[in-house]
Request: fold
Amino acid sequence: MPLRKAFSNREKLLILILAVIALALLYYRAIHVTVTEGIAQANERLEVLDMEKNAAMAKLARMRSMQSELEGLRSSGEVLVPIPKYDNQTNIMVELDGTLRNTMSKTISFKPVTQDGESSIYRRVVSVSFKTDTYVDALNVIDALYRSQYRCQISDMKIHSGAPLGTSPIRGEYSLSDDRTVNVALTITYFEALN
Reply:
């Protein structure tokens, strides 16, 4: 004989409430949590892509700016010197020796090579001092150094002759007339590319 119990209305209501709660928990676990996590991951990916897009737009703007600057230099007739390959010290020494050959005296000092940030560009810093007969000769040597066949930048330039002008030793004015020897000290930074 089969055992069957008839559920009362109250028991049926409790089973129905339990079923609804079970379905709500199932919906919450299976659908709501999964969808919420997916949306959060999509938002994170969107933020990353937005940052990458902004970086690419900034890079594009820099490249366009550099391109227009290069076009301006080309149209002005300025010669664009390519960056030589890394370890160009021997060629630099030969060029410096040729440029400074006609000076009265010269001193060349190479500093350790440094990398420019995380790029493949290296800086070779050279301290140069020399003495010439005249201010015009000094300017000609500086111009020859500036027009180097290797990409460089001249900085920390000091030019003076032997005798101060005027009566104020505090002001330190120097004569740059054509009839006195001129001492020049400067720093040249040569740029080299690793590849």
Observations:
- The first helix runs from residue 9 to 76.
